[in-house]
Hints:
464 residues, six-stranded mixed beta sheet, 4% helix, 54% strand
Amino acid sequence: MNRNFILLCIWLIMPFIAFSQGTSCATSIILSLDGVLRPYATSSGTGANVLCTNNGTTPVTWFKFTSNAQGQCPLLNITVSDSASCEVAFYTSCSSMLSSSSMCFYRGYGLWAPNENLSIIPNTTYYLRVKTSTACTIKIAGQHFLPVNDDCFGATSLSTTKIADNNACDHPGPGVLPSQLCALTLENTAWYQFYVLRTGYSVINITNIHCDNGASNNNSGFQIGFFKGNCSALEWINCTNGSGTTIQATTNQLPAGTRVYVAIDGISGSNCSYQINGLNIIGVLAGNIRYFSGWQTDQSNILKWTTLRESGGYYLVERSGNGIDFVTAGKINSRLAGSENVVYNFEDPYPSAENYYRLKQVDPQGRQALSNVIHIKRERSPGIQISMNNPASNVLNVRTGIEYPGKYNCSIFNLQGQKLRSFYKIFNEGTNLLLVNISDLPPGQYSIIIENDSTRANKMFVKL
């Protein structure tokens, strides 16, 4: 056959191929699930609704995608340019539609993902029949999606800064009951976590909510549960639910430093996009810290942590005598942003008998997050026992139990390790009374250290 004749035939049929693409399941447009937003013109094919409220015979465009080897959830962000109603029907084959995984976008945009009960088969082709109200442009961004916060163990850290998220590929959360989220059923639960900043109530704000589900239920709302404890043994706090484009949920009154887990579930399994943040909360420093540990030397406590990858900013080491009220004990600037597996050390030279420590990370944008709290308990120093009125106003009444009489140095430090006062005192064997004027000290936490060449004791106190 003449080569020029073949080229002429190809040239003649190319417009027909392009014009017919997407008109039927057999000519479906291939979607690449690579996260790139692409525009597609509606096909010349038309048809009636197969699921949603009938709006006559209008353009129908077919698409297809192939699942990856892991069978991860396919997530599509779909927008039609005419902003009118759009029907997305899901097919496992050209002749088999699943209504449970089909949706109606009555405002012309939304997130599509298969029903939570559908198991995606790896390396398998699936089809979408998209019916628009007019001939327009369909914009689609698709990806193979595995949400990190699908369960409690991957809970996303929350702060006062809004983050954009969705629950379209999440599944029912393990280890919780629907009633703990003020729900009848759980379908697509997303998890978050935070620390309570100050003793009291914490508030979660969910805004810019847009939800879609099935043919008729596009209820923009959530069922929300609060928990404490740990992911292996969650303790329920309270729950609430609500609808609309903005929802607030409030915890019960909780002590500062309480780690709270939040589970949110779309009403009736709705796929929702939203923004979420909180009040009276601070983020959880978890994903970037490999470990945070502490140990004792004879005279001090040593804290050590390793970061997987630096984001810049700095770290504050915070200390407490009761595990609730923390103050800054030191500051360490982070290494160059992008540095990996960085090891940090911090020495607390004046620890007391009970010591609680945590890290606060502050990134270059000023966002803050906390680590877990570690507890270091030191044995009482031999030879000296200290008791006192605590808290104290103007005079600190210190009783010392002395095993070896002699000359002792007495010092007062603030929690930043700065020595504020130092003097010597002769103690007899047995109980001694020491009166220390602290009227000039600002209110706060302090330490008194009594020591000689062979022994030392440390006690924390609060100045009112």
